[in-house]
Specification:
It is an enzyme of class 3 (hydrolase). It comes from Paradesertivirga mongoliensis. The chain has 3 domains: 3-217, Rossmann fold (3-Layer(aba) Sandwich); 228-339, Rossmann fold (3-Layer(aba) Sandwich), CATH 3.40.50; 359-428, ACT domain (Alpha-Beta Plaits), CATH 3.30.70. The protein contains 18 helices and 17 strands. The protein has helices spanning 9-13, 18-26, 33-48, 54-63, 69-80, 85-88, 91-96, 109-116, 153-161, 174-182, 198-201, 211-217, 241-249, 281-286, 305-310, 325-339, 372-382, 412-418, and strands spanning 3-7, 101-108, 126-129, 131-133, 139-142, 166-171, 187-191, 206-208, 232-236, 253-257, 268-273, 292-295, 314-316, 359-367, 387-394, 398-406, 423-428. A 6-stranded parallel sheet has the order 3-2-1-6-7-8. A 5-stranded parallel sheet has the order 10-9-11-12-13. Helix 2 runs antiparallel to helix 3 (33-48), helix 3 (33-48) runs antiparallel to helix 4 and helix 9 crosses helix 10 (174-182). The radius of gyration is 25 Å and the shape is globular.
């Protein structure tokens, strides 16, 4: 059966509530603006959490906006820069599924349409309210005959559309859950990249911290092979909040603890340590999913670089006590996870790369013995895989090969690459 993806706009496709942003534009010269901003935000949250009817919330918000067409132009420019990161990086998905994606929102077409059209979403698949204007272009109301202006409007609209197929809903608010409650959609995914409403999370079939997660669990094509929200990033010790926020903003699953607790050892994928923190060999050996360690200080005496190298764990540290490294160390960790960069690593061959479009990047870490690259390329040749670019860097113990290949390939290739003798770690980056 055909699949349909019903996607909300405010705080889902974009990082913000558009009417809240419109108020900040239109009321910037109003002496009571802060009080009105708070009023609008409270009305938005009350509707999104199901504490106030949507129509009542919408009517009151539009009434106090004092906005016009010029304000809307400024809003569109702002919203285009505030598309949620995981939607932005999966633009190809929308272009490849133009008939399957519907934007359904209680917001307004005047600002939604110009933001989503560049993603390949069809104009006829955008369902939202529309403003009413006076002769001077001032917003004076909205079309109250539109079902999306009513309480339960998304349910009423979907009944009218009579879509036949598997329907999935993605959103952050009560109106999105109502689709599931009505029985019109198969699953409701609570989207939490921008905001998490507890009353909605409890009702969702699945909590999806990013669009990558939604695509991953439904085995759909995506920009990255593994959602970053599934990578456990453990922060240990007195690490500055500035460092933590860099990793949190990049979408990793963050845990901040005073010690490297045993329960996190088997699952940790990234480890950021404050100066003075140590990691015993026994614990490091058990961290089989660990890909990179960042250390805010000189790590030479704090854990075994030799063991980390043997396990294919890339280390970034700060031997010179540079104050800028509270930012650069977590960023280097992110760059390794996101692009495969090992630039300024303390234990790996240094490699710095740009991202290649319309390709999959495969990372192969192995012991530095003769013939590995030949074996890797023979596997690609056996499966008629087109290599777009390839990089090999070595030191006395480690070889590190990054290969960008065309997106169409037999998944058997991955199994064969992992099984090459002397392989330490292998992963698909994106």
């Amino acid at each position: 059966m055909k699949n349909y993806y019903i996607i909300d706009f405010d705080s889902t496709f974009t990082q913000v509530e558009a009417l809240d942003e419109l108020a900040r534009i239109s009321l910037q010269d109003n002496p009571n603006r802060e009080a009105i901003y708070k009023q609008i935000e409270d009305l938005t949250n009350a509707a999104m959490e199901g504490r106030l009817s949507f129509r009542e919330s919408l009517t009151q918000r539009v009434k106090v906006l004092e906005a016009n067409r010029d304000h809307l132009k400024l809003l569109v420019s702002r919203l285009k820069k505030l598309v949620s990161s995981s939607f932005s990086r999966n633009k190809t998905f929308f272009k490849n599924h133009p008939d399957d994606v519907l934007i359904v929102s209680g917001g307004f077409k005047e600002f939604i349409t110009p933001v989503v059209l560049p993603y390949g979403i069809k104009k006829e698949n955008i369902y939202a309210n529309t403003f009413l204007f006076d002769v001077d272009g001032k917003i004076v109301g909205y079309d109250d005959s539109n079902p999306l202006s009513e309480e339960g409007g998304k349910v009423k609209l979907l009944k009218q559309l009579k879509l036949e197929g598997n329907i999935f809903g993605i959103g952050d608010g009560y109106s999105d859950f109502q689709l599931k409650e009505s029985g019109l959609i198969q699953k409701f995914y609570a989207f939490t990249e921008n905001i998490a409403r507890q009353s909605i999370l409890e009702k969702a079939d699945h909590v999806t911290p990013s669009f990558d997660e939604f695509l991953y669990i439904n085995q759909l094509p995506r920009a990255i092979s593994y959602p970053k929200n599934r990578i456990l990033c453990l922060i240990v010790g007195e690490v500055p909040d500035e460092s933590i926020q860099i990793l949190k903003k990049d979408g990793f699953s963050i845990r901040h603890k005073s010690t490297f607790e045993e329960k996190y050892v088997p699952d940790v994928g990234m480890l950021l340590l404050a100066e003075g923190e140590k990691v015993e060999d026994a614990k490091l050996k058990e961290a089989i999913k660990l890909k990179t360690i960042g250390y805010l200080g000189n790590s030479k005496q704090q854990f075994s670089h030799k063991l980390a190298t043997e396990m294919g764990i890339v280390v970034f540290d700060d031997p010179r006590d540079n104050p800028r490294n509270i930012q650069s160390i977590p960023r280097r960790m992110s760059d390794f996870i996101n692009r495969g960069d090992t630039y300024l690593s303390a234990n790996f061959p240094n490699l710095q790369l740009s991202k290649v479009g319309n390709a999959h990047r495969l990372l192969h870490i192995h012991r530095n013995v003769p013939g590995i690259l030949a074996q890797i390329n023979q596997i690609y040749a056996n499966h008629n895989i087109n290599i777009l670019s390839q990089f090999l860097m070595t030191n006395s113990t480690i070889g590190y090969v990054i290969t960008d290949v065309s997106v169409q390939y037999d998944k058997q290739v991955l199994k064969e690459l992992k099984e090459i003798s002397d392989t330490i770690k292998f992963r698909i980056l994106y």
